[in-house]
Design brief:
Largest sheet: 10 strands, mixed
Number of strands: 12
Helix content: 25-40%
Oligomer: single chain
Bound molecules: iron/sulfur cluster
Shape: elongated
Radius of gyration: 21 Å
Strand content: 15-25%
Number of domains: 2
CATH architecture of the largest domain: Alpha-Beta Barrel
Order of helices and strands: HHHEEEEEHEHEHEHEHHEHEHE
Distance between the termini: 15 Å
């Protein structure tokens, strides 16, 4: 749907200055509005009370401040994980997750409505692709939980780009969102507290390596042979493991940052001794860490989380090869907020 009037959250600072100049306003007004958006967390133009009334009225003529509507909220039984379903300006819906740890409050944001990649075990992939989210729609998900946390005297400390969608296929908007989230005049979230998770678009990883950022990179690997990986993740047919590992090594060389490989342990599928040995052989000597997490089951895929025996046999091989890994707990599984489980569950009345 064409939306000619810009959303203030989609503008970078210089675009906001240009907008204000176009209505005869000085540049410093942009600083004031920026503060209202990203420090005071305004949800309406009329909240910006340090602006003259006439300017607020003018601003409402030339732009909107769109705050996504909350359609549903689910809390996990432990209270650590909360998942909200948000409605965007055109009615599209995305899920965003807040994970509360002792020291951290991490928001898992979506970058697309649905996903075109179609990993077999992923609920988002099973729903297909609708559209990219704008930079403002990505940032709005963080602002949403920042508002909720501030009422408890807390704030968002970390962001993971691991929700619905493949961030590197929405490259420019994801990059613009990262830039805005780390802005010292705004939310000021440290680059090293952000993690971008990709399915492994090797060309885009190489491009991202050149951005001179210190953002963490996580790659969904899930298999160490092209034969198995292309069965689980169609992306492997265009970006095979050789291309992927070369791109990851370039990212490490350029950023000097450790890269994480995500591995959802699927019983009898990718938790075999052969896969563990292939993984160890592929990554020996690289500055990488493996995150093992038993699969979060979804309705559209018959795979189940690995048995304890399989997990033990798999990790034994990694131990023997001195491969650094962490065996993670599944979080938010009871509210389908775990990795690979997000999908917009409430549909518009008209659909
Ligand atoms: S795992 Fe990521 S890339 Fe794969 S289908 Fe799901 S959202 Fe898309």
């Amino acid at each position: 749907m064409p939306q000619k009037i810009p959303n203030l959250l989609d503008l970078d600072h210089s675009q906001l200055e240009s907008l204000l100049e176009s209505v005869g306003q000085p540049r410093y007004r942009a600083d004031q509005i920026w503060q209202w958006l990203y420090k005071q967390l305004a949800t309406e133009v009329q909240d910006m009370t340090s602006l003259p009334k006439a300017l607020r009225a003018k601003l409402e003529e030339v732009a909107v401040l769109h705050t996504p509507r909350v359609l549903a909220t689910q809390e996990s039984l432990t209270g650590e994980t909360r998942k909200d379903l948000l409605e965007m300006r055109d009615g599209e819906q995305v899920e965003v997750v807040l994970m509360r740890y002792i020291q951290r409050r991490t928001v898992c944001v979506s970058t697309q409505v649905g996903c075109a990649i179609g990993c077999r075990f992923c609920a988002t992939g099973q729903m297909g692709f609708q559209r990219n989210l704008s930079s403002g729609e990505i940032v709005a998900q963080v602002l949403h939980f920042e508002r909720a946390l501030r009422t408890q005297g807390r704030r968002v400390t970390n962001i993971v780009f691991m929700g619905m969608g493949e961030p590197l296929l929405n490259y420019n908007n994801t990059l613009a969102a990262i830039t805005r989230l780390m802005d010292p005049a705004g939310l000021q979230i440290g680059q090293r507290r952000m993690t971008l998770s990709t399915v492994g678009i090797s060309t885009a990883i190489r491009r991202f390596a050149k951005e001179k950022l210190q953002v963490n990179l996580a790659v969904s690997l899930h298999a160490a042979t092209d034969e198995l990986r292309s069965e689980l993740m169609p992306v492997d047919q265009r970006h095979d493991l050789d291309a992927l590992f070369a791109a990851v090594q370039e990212y490490i060389n350029r950023t000097n940052r450790e890269v994480t490989f995500e591995w959802a342990l699927i019983d009898g599928v990718n938790d075999t001794p052969e896969q563990a040995a292939a993984l160890a052989a592929r990554i020996a000597g690289m500055l990488v860490h493996v995150n093992l997490i038993p699969l979060n089951p979804t309705d559209g895929y018959p795979g189940q989380p690995s048995s304890e025996e399989h997990v033990e046999a798999f990790t034994d091989i990694l131990d023997r090869r001195h491969i650094p890994y962490t065996l993670r707990l599944r979080r938010g599984g009871d509210i389908q907020a775990g990795c690979g489980q997000l999908r917009a569950r409430i549909h518009r009345q008209s659909t």
